[in-house]
Write a structure and sequence with these properties.
α1 runs antiparallel to α3. The protein has one domain. Helix content is 49%, strand content 5%. β1 and β2 form a beta hairpin.
């Protein structure tokens, strides 16, 4: 959930930069990762943020349990035992 808020904050920052005329200039949004990604403008970073937000939406919409479950869904249900025997 906090990652969604962070992505929305990045999107708001990129939209602000675009509206103030800095949309095509390198934004430095990804820091040292720009060595691998190349320099991104605020417009390109906004598209990347929208893609990440779509991935968050897909994960949350197909998550088989409630959001606050502690046990990860991919580990399966814990085996219930009663006095050493499977229930």
């Amino acid at each position: 959930m906090s990652d969604t808020v962070l992505i929305l904050a990045f999107m708001a920052n990129n939209i602000w930069m675009i509206r103030h005329g800095a949309g095509r200039e390198p934004c430095g949004c990804f820091g040292t990762f720009e060595e691998f990604l190349g320099t991104l403008s605020a417009e390109n970073a906004l598209w990347m943020d929208m893609g990440m937000l779509a991935l968050v939406w897909i994960i949350l919409s197909y998550y088989p349990r409630t959001f606050f479950d502690i046990r990860p869904w991919f580990l399966g249900e814990p085996v219930q035992t009663i006095h050493g025997q499977k229930a």
